[in-house]
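Example 3.2
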Amino acid sequence: MSRLHAENHLVSRIGWLRAAVLGANDGIVSTASLIIGVAAANATTASVLVAGVAGLVAGAM
């Protein structure tokens, strides 16, 4: 008869790292696409900057 034992795997301990990397990647892509979209509409530099800052703040909430 075999006995069950607990196994601690590395993947269960570093889930926070995966979430952080994927979350940062998502934030970078969404902010970059917002800035590119505003810049493609022939907006002024100030408008692109304001849109980028607004996107960063909205993404942080």
